[in-house]
TrEMBL record:
This is Protein TAPETUM DETERMINANT 1. InterPro entries: TPD1. Keywords: Signal. It comes from the Eukaryota. It comes from Stylosanthes scabra.
Length: 120
């Protein structure tokens, strides 16, 4: 019984840990070899928490794409400010994935998000 209680307590601790910007994983890869280059972007929340980060913004320069991107997934609001998932929470292991077309890859980096704070 004690082992089960310890396991339950450790699960509870993991589920109530606080998330940080390091829990938002951003990766890009080139998809096409001819024509206008296409890049696949994947944004994943790796934080195990009951409270998902929301209002996630990335640094994105003058991000633009020849291919239309669903603005509910990713939208440039102004220079160097792009909104992910329409500002909605991005749950644990959930992924936002989209493809954009441009002659070069735009560097994308975490800018800000709202994270739940946990009671101590």
């Amino acid at each position: 019984m004690k082992a089960e209680q310890t396991l339950s307590a450790s699960r509870k601790f993991l589920m109530h840990g606080s998330c940080t910007n390091e829990d938002i994983s951003i990766s890009q890869s080139r998809e096409s070899a001819s024509g206008i280059p296409e890049y696949i972007v994947e944004i994943v929340n790796t934080c195990v928490s009951e409270c998902a980060p929301y209002d996630i913004h990335l640094r994105c320069g003058w991000f633009a794409s020849a291919r239309v991107i669903n603005p509910r997934l990713f939208k440039r609001l102004s220079y160097d400010d792009c909104l992910v998932n329409g500002g909605k929470p991005l749950g644990f292991s959930k992924m936002i994935r989209f493809t954009y077309s441009n002659s070069f890859l735009y560097p994308l980096a975490f800018k800000s998000a709202n994270f739940c704070s946990t009671p101590k």
